[in-house]
């Protein structure tokens, strides 16, 4: 960990070749932020389409999430930015919301945006029958694209630099392109003899700063690729495959798989009807064998299993566990090793915060996630990474076992079937109902209950009469015989 403060001790050396704006109207930082958002939303739209979710649902979420994310990033970035108790440029409360001005903290944007998304899609999912975890996997990992591109806006602003790594004359970053080296050099104007990163600084000397914006950008792109293309497919690569489990139904053709990957527009449903030979590609087989296959033939088996669980009279927790396992098994009867939804969203929080933790160790105190509080910043970052790891683990077993329901979209669409009490706040509702029963009943409720008792009594008498008539007929028959 390197302890240092940038302050006013570093200035333009006069050799920079890039600027934060051009022509007074084109602001590079705003451009890279906008481009990053467009790419993130665009790939999210592709994942919605791939899952069969209407893109309009993404649009409604974006309308709420993006403004709230910008406000969150602006508040976290400007609060105490010029010192403890002093906001960026001395702005007041309302000035903290001015996201079009410099001073943005990505953690604030992610936290506020995620909270907004959970509320929006939590409500939406109750009506669309799409799991909240599915929405999260389709959107959250793509934030990495926006972050990676946005870091280049910081480069043009000459921001997000690490400590000095050596004097310019020593050329410590010769492996980097020249334009990155030149534009990450600063002139030191502080007191001579101050030591930062093991270097004794001299007033007026130009130093090469660590381009941590570049390290973070590359690391974020790599993390996005791993989360998007590797994490969801690990089980499919090393586990059971449809063409090996059911060789009579599926015949894998590697050549068709590559063509499907390179030209996906040629492998729509209409094209596959015209060209049945294209059905042998990797993606098409997995769609037919699992992702697009509704396992309605497993429904009777599942319903029998649910009946057994209910007949045993176990507690709610046990019933939820066993019914969840039965539901997952019924919708994946071939036991393919499928990564369940939630892993990609958790992977984002884990990967991003591990990267940020490594780079936060080098950032100056006045450019931290929480200004001038390095220990607190690092603790919150690692807690967020731990939360991501916990999401990845729990989404693959505990959450799936206890909270999945029929007729909802997860990795695939689950068939419609009866299920256990789906109220997540079961015990709260139970407690509220107990309180209601303990209160004195109104006259209306008493009259209703008395009517119900009368109806039950009549039914009981009618049953007794029928039994008596049946017995009389039997006795009469015996006497005749």
Features:
481 residues; mainly alpha; 4-stranded antiparallel β-sheet; two-stranded antiparallel ribbon; elongated
Give structural notes:
The chain is mainly α. It is 58% helix and 5% strand. It contains 19 helices and 8 strands. The protein has helices spanning 28-51, 55-78, 106-128, 132-139, 143-156, 178-182, 212-230, 234-238, 242-245, 254-262, 269-274, 282-291, 299-312, 316-331, 343-360, 374-396, 398-403, 426-438, 443-480; strands at residues 10-11, 21-22, 26-27, 164-167, 185-188, 195-196, 199-200, 206-209. The strands form 3 sheets. Strands 1-5-8-4 form a 4-stranded antiparallel β-sheet, with no helix packed on it. The chain has a two-stranded antiparallel sheet with strand order 2-3. It has a two-stranded antiparallel sheet with strand order 6-7. The protein is elongated, with a radius of gyration of 32 Å. Residues 420-428 and 441-446 have low confidence and may be disordered.
């Amino acid at each position: 960990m390197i302890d240092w403060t940038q302050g006013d001790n570093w200035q333009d050396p006069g050799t920079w070749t890039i600027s934060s704006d051009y022509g007074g109207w084109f602001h590079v930082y705003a451009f890279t932020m906008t481009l990053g958002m467009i790419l993130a939303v665009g790939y999210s739209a592709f994942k919605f389409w791939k899952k069969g979710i209407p893109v309009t649902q993404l649009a409604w979420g974006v309308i709420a999430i993006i403004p709230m994310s910008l406000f969150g990033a602006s508040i976290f970035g400007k609060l105490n930015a010029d010192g403890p108790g002093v906001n960026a440029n001395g702005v007041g409360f309302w000035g903290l919301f001015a996201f079009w001005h410099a001073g943005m903290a990505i953690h604030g944007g992610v936290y506020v945006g995620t909270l907004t998304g959970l509320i929006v899609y939590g409500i939406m999912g109750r009506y669309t029958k799409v799991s909240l975890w599915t929405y999260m996997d389709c959107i959250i990992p793509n934030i990495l694209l926006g972050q990676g591109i946005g870091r280049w806006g910081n480069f043009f602003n000459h921001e997000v630099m690490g400590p000095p790594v050596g004097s310019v004359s020593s050329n410590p970053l010769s492996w980097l392109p020249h334009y990155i080296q030149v534009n990450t050099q600063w002139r030191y104007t502080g007191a001579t003899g101050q030591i930062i990163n093991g270097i004794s600084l001299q007033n007026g000397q130009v130093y090469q700063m660590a381009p941590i914006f570049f390290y973070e950008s590359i690391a974020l792109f790599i993390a996005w690729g791993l989360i998007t293309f590797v994490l969801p497919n690990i089980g499919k690569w090393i586990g059971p495959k449809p063409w090996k489990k059911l060789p009579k139904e599926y015949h894998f053709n590697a050549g068709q798989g590559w063509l499907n990957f390179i030209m996906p527009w040629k492998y729509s449903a209409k094209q596959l009807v015209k060209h049945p030979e294209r059905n042998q590609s990797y993606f098409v087989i997995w769609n037919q064998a699992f992702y697009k296959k509704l396992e309605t033939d497993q429904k009777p088996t599942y319903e029998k299993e649910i009946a057994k669980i209910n007949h045993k009279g176990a507690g709610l927790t046990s019933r939820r566990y066993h019914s969840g396992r039965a539901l997952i098994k019924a919708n994946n009867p071939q036991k393919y090793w499928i990564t369940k939804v939630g892993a990609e969203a958790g992977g984002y929080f884990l990967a991003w915060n591990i990267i940020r933790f490594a780079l936060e160790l080098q950032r100056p105190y006045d450019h931290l996630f929480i200004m001038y509080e390095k220990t607190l910043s690092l603790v919150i970052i690692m807690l967020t990474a731990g939360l991501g790891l916990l999401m990845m683990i729990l989404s693959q077993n505990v959450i799936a076992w206890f909270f999945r329901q029929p007729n909802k979209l997860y990795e695939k669409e689950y068939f419609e079937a009866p299920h256990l009490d789906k109220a997540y706040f079961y015990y709260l509702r139970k407690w509220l109902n107990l309180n209601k029963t303990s209160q004195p009943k109104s006259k209306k409720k008493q009259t209703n209950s008395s009517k119900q008792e009368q109806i039950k009594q009549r039914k009981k008498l009618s049953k007794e009469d029928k039994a008596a008539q049946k017995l009389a007929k039997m006795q009469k028959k015996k006497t005749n015989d």
